[in-house]
Amino acid sequence: MREIGRHLLWPLAALAILLAFNALRDPAFFHLRLVEGRLTGAMIDILNQGAPVLLLALGMTLVIGTGGIDLSVGAVMAVAGAVAADLLHSGASTATALAAAVGAGLAAGLWNGSLIALVGLSPIVATLILMVAGRGIAQLVSNGEIIDIAPDAAILAIGRGTVLGLPFPVLIALGAAAALAGVARLTSLGLFIECVGGNEQASRYAGLAVRSIRLAAYALMGVLAAIAGLIDAADIAAADANNCGLYLELDSILAVVIGGAALTGGRFSIAGSLLGAIIIQTISTSILRADFGGRSVPVELNLIIKATFVLALCLVQSSEWRRWRPLRRSAAA
Amino acid sequence: VFAFASCSKKSSSDSGSESKPLVVGFSQIGAESSWRTAETKSIRDEAKKRGVDLRLYDAQQKQENQIKAINSFIAQRVDAIILAPVVETGWEPVLTQAKAAGIPVILVDRGVKVSDDSLYTTLIASDFVAEGRMAAQWLAKALNGAGNIVELQGTPGSAPASDRKKGFEEGIAPHAGLKITRSQTGEFTRAKGKEVMEAFLKAAPGQVNAVYAHNDDMALGAIQAIEEAGLKPGTDILIVSIDGVRAAFEAMVAGKLNCTVECNPLLGPAAFDAVEMVLAGETLPKNIVVQDRVFDQSTAAEVIDSREY
Amino acid sequence: MRANLTRHWPLLATGVVLLALYIGAAIAFPGFRTWFQFTRLFSDNATLGLAAVGMTFVILSGGIDLSVGAVIACASMMLALLAGELAWPLWLAAPAVLAAGAAFGAGMGGLIHIFRLPPFLVTLAGMFLARGTALLLSPHKRIELGSHDSVRSLSLLHVADFTLAALIFLAAVTLSALALRWMRWGRTVYAIGSDESAARLMGLAVAPTRIGVYALSGLCAAAGGIVHVIGTQAGDASIAFLLELDAIAAVVIGGTVLAGGRGSVLGTLLGVLILAIITTIPGYVSDLDSWWTRLIIGALLLLFVSLQRVSQHWREE
Amino acid sequence: MADALVEMREIVKTYPGVVALDAVDFTLRAGEIHALVGENGAGKSTLIRILTGAERPDRGRLLLNGREIHARSPAEAQRLGVAAVYQEINLAPDLSIAENLLLGREPRSRFGWIQWGEMRRRARQIVRSMGLEADVSAPLRDCSIALRQMIAVARAVDQRARVLVLDEPTSSLDAAETGRLFDLMRRLRAAGLGIVFITHFLEQVYAVSDRITVLRGGRCVGSHAARDLPRLALVSAMLGKAASAVAAERASTRRADCGGAARLVAKRVFRRRSIQPFDLTLRAGEVVGLAGLLGSGRTEMARLLFGVETRDGGTISINGAAMHRHSPRRSIRAGVALAPEDRRAAGLVPRLSVRDNILLALHASRGWLRRLPRRDQVALAEQFVRSLSIATPDLRRPVAQLSGGNQQKVILARWLLMEPTILLLDEPTRGIDIGAKEQVESLVADLRVRGMAIVFISGELEEVVRVSSRVVVLRDRAVVGELEGAAITAGSIMERIAGPAEGGGHA
Ligand SMILES: Nc1ncnc2c1ncn2[C@@H]1O[C@H](COP(=O)(O)OP(=O)(O)OP(=O)(O)O)[C@@H](O)[C@H]1O
Ligand SMILES: Nc1ncnc2c1ncn2[C@@H]1O[C@H](COP(=O)(O)OP(=O)(O)OP(=O)(O)O)[C@@H](O)[C@H]1O
Ligand SMILES: [Mg+2]
Ligand SMILES: [Mg+2]
């Protein structure tokens, strides 16, 4: 655990720098106000906006931990949203709609997992299939239209409700993170996932149920993606099959990597991914909020800043970089 | 040895006399918005009505896919091609092929830039600049010529986004009191529209008088952002957008949206009229402009039931 | 001979399934049989193909390059800027863009090699950088060449119905296949992908090879961007979004192993053609809702990779 | 010294938490074979990795022919005339044998194209000159570990270097191949090369080397001419204590009767292209040695018994239960354990800690929900680290950072703590030092007495003779004979391995 702690040092420092920058630019950045029983403020916004990516990053952490990857998460979000909205539209109860959406996510995850663990396709190709087809399925379900979720549906609470002033999406995301971290710590699941990602053959020899572990990771990813999809749909009160979760797969992968996981599998950190997701959302939000002399910053800078930031972060973390510095110093001496 | 293409023989455009149905290829951009879906539906329905065998390819916003689709239409010798081009340039090679194969091409909803305008038969489209101008004129009147406006742009670089921006700027130019204080892309989607609007409201609380959104979806997103900020959309902040989809009318009836400028996606009948005319050997005007109207809350309730999309 | 057959089985299997797919499509859809459609399979997918060729090298070396789509877009913008707005002649602008692409790739390769950063991460950052740069190059996110006659005439050029793009793609495949099989550099790529630390301990030139591989990928992507500009007479910052995923899929379908060390460019050619056929087929199917395009592509992809998998399994037995 | 080919002076190398080398001096002369010996983790591999430029020392000087060099990479060292075979075979498994032999030095035409025909011809020549038989265009991954090791040696030798470093080259070779390798080393010595030779086999040390340098705990504890250093003195130098207790009570155990209950029964089990149908019965309290040449099918047999690979036919029952859909998981549940021969590929999870690697099988058998409390984990792991004397600074260290022999011990620990009823050991003593080897051997004897059924595979015939109560001999992937009790001698096993007709006379 001490090693993990050290791992989090740099991402934490990065987040601190980002927040400090924002606080300097905008003194009210850290202010939290209670408006109509709802906490508002930039920090809450970041968590609220970042909730879907955060959920995806959690699942992606496990999937990447097994040495895999899931490109279909955005599409799965869309499917889940579409399923829920469609059912609500045809008069189903909220509970049914929610269950069906999560079930759809689970099914998608199991589908991916089976293709990878049982059929033996490579994760990139297997999930690419669902990435392409998934949006098609979502459109099929929603008949190609943006389905409005009736304004009185309880489902909207997922997107907008609050508990003790905290927005519901934030609670869901942080709750999921805490639950996952707990499971990883208190059971052997985390270890198993790291084993499968670290050396599949050795895991098999040691008697691990490699296939089931893979399957479980993708299934959980599917469920989390579905929840993220529900949050997204509830947030805009509509299921938008075409745009829901678009490109979020990249952000979630990035979050996991910032959090210090090895993309080749075998090492991951839930807390790290959590931080990674928050960092990514903070960058986006900072750019949206920042304005220089009345002009807003072009969004495309978002990409460049994100990239530079991530690269710099990983560079200072790399052992080679640390090795280089004394070398240069001794060369100067 | 290089040679320029002289690909195919004359296509059989005499199919009208036989019992075999017309085969028409439709290269559609994608399904990114309700408007686009309505357009696709209109063309499919019309094809079904007229007994046309339609080949529909959804290009997922990619020009390379659209070109792929047109090439496959050429290879299977369809009788005509309908193209909704995602961008304006780069169509010359593929349209040259179509022309050489003797297949007429009807453009819908935006134009193309080609050096030889015989490469397509006709363009059926709305005037995006005019739409932007109409939105500006309505807003200028509603605001009495003074106020801070934030703009939610469409996808950067797309023709509707740049034309609607241009038209709107032209429209407010005479009114010195009207200022666009912020302008960001919401990428034509509801979620982005909401996110950007939230940021706008946070950055300058209480200073936004009106929102101009390049399409209805973004406006609907912005409405939610406004509501969540504790303001009343349509009252505290005026909202005007373009497209005129059904959801926009519902929002107007609910008093949350002030005005939408119609951009009619129901191009099916016009497109197939054009196909039949050109196959019958008639000449068509190069440009068929679709008439668009402005709707606001005063008319919304009456019209809403007649909206098809 | 027998041994050779088993060794090249993945390639053969891919070839056989490709053939089956083509014949199937040709039987179902008369238009598919035409020479015209055959040549379009190459022309319409030349950009993807070029990216996939570069990607083959990267994957063979055990890495991955997620930046290619963005580099294609950025290269197209740069070329349009240089040749269009700055009116450079094409023979000057195109090499400049190629060099920039290669340099960008080499930079990423350098970071990956020297600082031992994961390729996935570096090239993901590279993707954001290149895409961001492409978007910043013009406020309209798109630069049209206008009446650039040399580009226009290039775009209309054909040899036996193959467009210039297709020819460039095929040339790249040929050259790459030669380099991988007959050059020490190519063999070193395989060795690195097979076991990097072993390659180092064997005394092979790991650093230049590794960096060279990413440079080559950047170069191929830039070539893809150039081909795109020639085809469409415009640079566009939003093209080729997530094209890297298609490129990776083509490489993997072509039998190259993602872990590195095994595979071939010829396989990649087959992989690209398979994707090409799969994505063309929806254009032949009557009256379907637009989402069927995606569903058909997904289903065909699944069918195909499963077939391939089954054939591999069958050989192992 | 005029004839010092390599001089290493005051070499210091530290890893986090470990001083791998502490001011080590090492001198290699031209025309000598210089054995480097020491316990697991003594620093042998580290020293030679520094010599070959694979690793940079923290301090110290390296002189080649009296000139100081700063090789920063193996490539540079190779140019300077230092060739090496590393402990973990470092070749490219996906490339062909020919390429692995010649990569970096391929014959090329004037334009730089590789000449494949010439390359294969030369590779065939090299392979033949080593007395091997192999299709040089076959990919290396299809070769057995032994063949790979020989190919690695061939590659190094063929570089015509002045200094040749061999880190445990014989760890998976059988007697004949080892002999061939020694002939080759002697020839090279005659040609004036300096050879560094690392091994844990003392006979081998005395068979070929001229000088012996002993490392202990990262320090050089002496360098002597081989004939001046008696065996016992060498052992006590390595272990750092008077080694009189080395003589053990081995032979006595074999006499004990071995007619316990049948634990594992295999009938007509086979797998196409890897092993012919064989029968095998394992009883409680016996050690069955598998003997055979390289590639004779011993590993394959163990893998089939464990269920790593699906058999094409035959039946296996374990402790009375028939194994229908066989898999390692089921085997483990039935009480079987397999310590695999290829520790890097099939044994270790390199990034995980020593503790997790030791406990992996236990965790797996308990399932994900029933996690062992942390305190028990530490206690168990510590117990085995102590009892097998695994040299590691702490339990949290990633296992990849241990020395090769200690990694092997980690895998042994993993299976021993499972307390299986049937233990399959595939080359369990590969690369571990003599002290530990004694330990393993006596451990096996111990477990046998406690009623475990054990399969013991080893390339070292004497070892098989020492520990087994029954020996099954394999040749060309088929069982060709069985020996029991007093009939087990190195000679009789060799006969079975060699003689084609003799197997039939049995039974
Ligand atoms: N990469 C590394 N990181 C950390 N520690 C290491 C690393 N490599 C080796 N060590 C440590 O250095 C010490 C010496 O290891 P070395 O591999 O040289 O031993 P050895 O004498 O070759 O042993 P063996 O006979 O088991 O091969 C060991 O304690 C080992 O744990
Ligand atoms: N995974 C594998 N793939 C292909 N061939 C294999 C594999 N494992 C073993 N073989 C081949 O099967 C034959 C039997 O090998 P096996 O490893 O069982 O022999 P062995 O008696 O244990 O010898 P060794 O000392 O090499 O371990 C060898 O020729 C080897 O090349
Ligand atoms: Mg060693
Ligand atoms: Mg073996």
Short précis:
The complex is a heterotetramer of chains A (333), B (309), C (317) and D (507). Chain C is mainly alpha-helical.
Task: Itemize the secondary structure elements and their pairings.
The complex is a heterotetramer of chains A (333), B (309), C (317) and D (507).
Chain A: H1 2-25, E1 33-35, E2 38-40, H2 42-65, H3 73-89, H4 94-119, H5 123-142, E3 147-148, H6 156-160, E4 162-163, E5 166-167, H7 168-186, H8 189-198, H9 200-205, H10 210-236, E6 238-239, H11 248-258, H12 270-289, E7 291-292, E8 295-296, H13 300-317, H14 319-332
Antiparallel strand pairs in A: 1-2, 3-6, 4-5, 7-8
Helix pairs in contact in A: 1-12, 1-13, 2-7, 2-8, 2-10, 2-11, 2-12, 3-4, 3-5, 3-10, 4-5, 4-10, 8-10, 11-12, 12-13
Chain B: E1 3-4, E2 23-28, H1 34-50, E3 53-58, H2 63-75, E4 80-83, H3 92-100, E5 105-108, E6 122-125, H4 128-142, E7 146-153, H5 159-172, E8 177-185, H6 190-203, E9 210-213, H7 216-228, E10 238-243, H8 246-253, E11 259-262, H9 268-279, E12 287-289, E13 294-296, H10 297-303
Parallel strand pairs in B: 2-3, 2-4, 4-5, 5-6, 6-12, 7-8, 7-9, 9-10, 10-11
Antiparallel strand pairs in B: 11-13
Helix pairs in contact in B: 1-9, 2-3, 4-5, 6-7, 8-10
Chain C: H1 2-7, H2 9-28, H3 35-43, H4 46-60, H5 68-85, H6 90-114, H7 119-136, E1 142-144, H8 149-155, E2 157-159, E3 162-163, H9 164-182, H10 184-194, H11 196-201, H12 206-232, E4 234-236, H13 243-253, H14 265-280, H15 291-316
Antiparallel strand pairs in C: 1-4, 2-3
Helix pairs in contact in C: 2-14, 2-15, 3-9, 4-9, 4-10, 4-12, 4-13, 4-14, 5-6, 5-7, 5-12, 6-7, 6-12, 8-12, 9-10, 9-12, 10-12, 13-14, 14-15
